From TrEMBL:
It comes from the Bacteria. InterPro entries: HTH_LacI (IPR000843), LacI/GalR-like_sensor (IPR046335), Lambda_DNA-bd_dom_sf (IPR010982), Peripla_BP_I (IPR028082). The keyword Chaperone does not apply. The keyword Mitochondrion does not apply. This is Transcriptional regulator, LacI family. Residues 5-59 form the HTH lacI-type domain. The lineage of its organism: Bacteria, Pseudomonadati, Bacteroidota, Cytophagia, Cytophagales. GO terms for molecular function: DNA-binding transcription factor activity; transcription cis-regulatory region binding. Keywords: DNA-binding, Transcription, Transcription regulation.
Length: 343
């Protein structure tokens, strides 16, 4: 078994005191740069691993921030994490990332594991099954900040960063109505998830504002909204009589997949059915026709939520999210060919 390298081994190897080695490794100003360099080089060559855990126990800070995402297999989540990581690494924090896979059971287990690992703060986008929030209680009791993003809990104590999903769905639906659509179908994920429940509201508001009647068969709900749900969606659409002339899909990958299948069935996009997606994922720009979509600022969302958490960790007296419990980011409609009936 390999022996663990200690500061005493490094000290002996280059002929300095263990105290000097310890100070150098902690970047103490009392150690000359030349000596520091020598010590770092020796530590690296000998395979020394600093005992961060012991140091953390002394400082009661781990410099780790826990992040729980519903699924890593999403370009939106990837862009949010990129924004988080940028801000965290600039401030000297590491991310510990886990996924709930939309299961409340897994979310609870992940939360417990983060608590035991003594993360300094926690950032969460809730699982679709998550209904109760008791698993965050130990963090609140210990004064460990918890922030939500995208899927924010409906509770007075929840702080988080989101977009105005009601407004986003309204502008998407209004755009289809402006293009002359009279019979629009909205495809979305489980309405247990706040973002989809809000988008459904926005869809209904747009119809009502334009004097149109909302019918239940205008809504297709998928347990998981992604490219795999397209076959089910297209079957449902083709069985509707009359055939819809507008389609608003709450996810670009699903929208692109629906569009491909509709085209294969001889449906013209946008002439027969005008199409709008959501998230402004790369796929929306790669297919033909390119998909009109809502720009969801993932990187910015990651940066904003992380910056707020770190500001609070560095100066605990500052309130999370500057005395408000939500930050709402701007989202815009990006108009492309898939929806333009009126060219």
């Amino acid at each position: 078994m390999n022996k663990e390298i200690t500061i005493y081994d490094i000290a002996k190897g280059i002929g300095v005191s263990p105290t000097t080695v310890s100070r150098a490794l902690n970047n103490h100003p009392a150690v000359k740069e030349k000596t520091k360099k020598k010590i770092f080089q020796a530590a690296s060559e000998m395979g020394y691993q600093s005992n961060v855990f012991a140091a953390n126990l002394r400082s009661k800070k781990t410099n780790n921030i826990g992040v729980i995402v519903p699924s890593l297999n999403s370009s939106f989540q990837a862009s949010v994490l990129a924004g988080m990581e940028k801000i965290a690494s600039e401030a000297g924090y590491n991310l510990v990332i886990t996924q709930s896979l939309e299961s409340s059971e897994k979310e609870i287990a992940n939360t417990l594991s983060m608590f035991k690992s003594r993360v300094d703060g926690l950032i969460v986008s809730l699982a679709s099954e998550a209904e109760k929030l008791e698993h965050f209680e130990p963090f609140h009791k210990k004064g460990i900040p918890v922030l939500f993003y995208d899927r924010v809990a409906n509770s007075r104590d929840s702080v988080g960063v989101t977009i105005d999903n009601i407004h986003a769905a309204q502008i998407a639906t209004n755009h289809l109505i402006e293009q002359g659509c009279k019979n629009i179908v909205h495809v979305l994920g489980s309405t247990k998830i706040s973002v989809y429940a809000e988008r459904l509201k926005g869809f209904k508001y747009a119809l009502i504002d334009n004097g149109m009647i909302f019918k239940e068969d205008q809504v297709i709900v998928l347990d998981k909204i992604d490219e795999n749900g397209a076959e089910y969606v297209v079957d449902k659409i083709l069985n509707l009589n009359p055939l819809p002339d507008g389609l608003f899909v709450s996810n670009d990958a699903c929208a692109a997949s629906c569009m491909n299948q509709l085209i294969q069935k001889g449906i013209k996009i946008p002439e027969d059915i005008a199409l709008v997606g959501f998230n402004n994922e790369v796929i929306s720009r790669l297919v033909h026709p390119k998909i009109t979509t809502i720009n969801y600022p993932g990187v910015e969302m990651g940066e904003v939520v992380m910056r707020n958490l770190i500001n609070h960790l560095d100066e605990p007296e500052t309130m999370l999210l500057q005395n408000t419990n939500k930050i709402t980011l701007r989202s815009d409609l990006i108009i492309r060919d898939s929806s333009l009936k009126k060219k």
